[in-house]
Amino acid sequence: DVSSSHFPASAGKKKPHQARNGGGAGGGGGGGGAAGAGEKKRLSVLGEEGRDVSGGIDDKYALDRELGRGEFGVTYLCMDRGSKELLACKSISKRKLRTPVDVEDVRREVAIMRHLPRSASIVTLREACEDDGAVHLVMELCEGGELFDRIVARGHYTERAAAAVTRTIVEVVQLCHHHGVIHRDLKPENFLFANKKENSPLKAIDFGLSIFFKPGEKFSEIVGSPYYMAPEVLKRNYGPEIDIWSAGVILYILLCGVPPFWAETEQGVAQAILRGNIDFKREPWPHVSDNAKDLVRQMLQPDPKIRLTAKQVLVCNLIARRSLDQSALF
């Protein structure tokens, strides 16, 4: 079962931007550049990607209680004053956007959410707007909690339930890759259940580290969350294949409750990832099918050139059984 010694919630919930370009210093440590952005009379973040609401968003939306808090902003429950529909509003403080890179990250997140087609497996962005103090992303509300929390509460999943979750995650990967996007931060915290029902849809919610790519293009920026990083990210030479690696890490966790590559420090986790030794001996692995273990191995293939693609994962025996019942998730 999941325990704090093997899978500390604090490590799992590490804010993704802290892992950018070599760990914690990148996110919160850059105080020196803060004044420059703060002194500007008006920082325009979204440009053509969003609506200017200089008087604030209160005329259209009523903000309610806080739902979550990240490095750059706060997500609130909000209500559309016209339709009375409940939504979620992610408000990103402009004071926290200290560098041009931070500003570009927010602009790109909005552009990517607009670029991807509507999908039952991706949270819908209703509107992006900005006022003097913040950028506001108004999205559909998901009230069923994080996949992360359900894994912790459950310990580990049956193969059938793990396959259903993995199918949804890999369908998101396939959609992203087909439309020229690498997600770059797939992890259980970035998937929410739409509601608390047993058959609730699962939705990807965070595209803050995602990036557009062209076929054959390689990236070198180290981003993501330590447990889920592919070895080629650590080697600073990667493409879209990294998303399948991260989905493979999630599948391993779903099946046994702990990450495949674990250590007390981020450096130790990185070394474990580069060594690539996957433990299939501890419980419950002796009782897990060869099919499931083979899929994990092929998704966690160190060589991205021969790692499975999203399409290949979706047609493999474990995942392709369309008799998968969402109610098996619980």
UniProtKB/TrEMBL annotation:
Its EC number is 2.7.11.1. ATP binds at K90. Pfam families: Pkinase (PF00069). It comes from the Eukaryota. SUPFAM superfamilies: Protein kinase-like (PK-like). Residues 21-36 have a biased composition (Gly residues). InterPro entries: CDPK_Ser/Thr_kinases, Kinase-like_dom_sf, Prot_kinase_dom, Protein_kinase_ATP_BS, Ser/Thr_kinase_AS. Keywords: ATP-binding, Calcium, Kinase, Metal-binding, Nucleotide-binding, Repeat, Serine/threonine-protein kinase, Transferase. Residues 1-40 are annotated as: Disordered. It catalyses: L-seryl-[protein] + ATP = O-phospho-L-seryl-[protein] + ADP + H(+); L-threonyl-[protein] + ATP = O-phospho-L-threonyl-[protein] + ADP + H(+). Residues 61-319 form the Protein kinase domain. One of its GO terms (molecular function) is metal ion binding. CDD domains: STKc_CAMK. PANTHER family: SERINE/THREONINE-PROTEIN KINASE. Belongs to the protein kinase superfamily. Ser/Thr protein kinase family. CDPK subfamily. This is non-specific serine/threonine protein kinase. It comes from Aegilops tauschii subsp. strangulata.
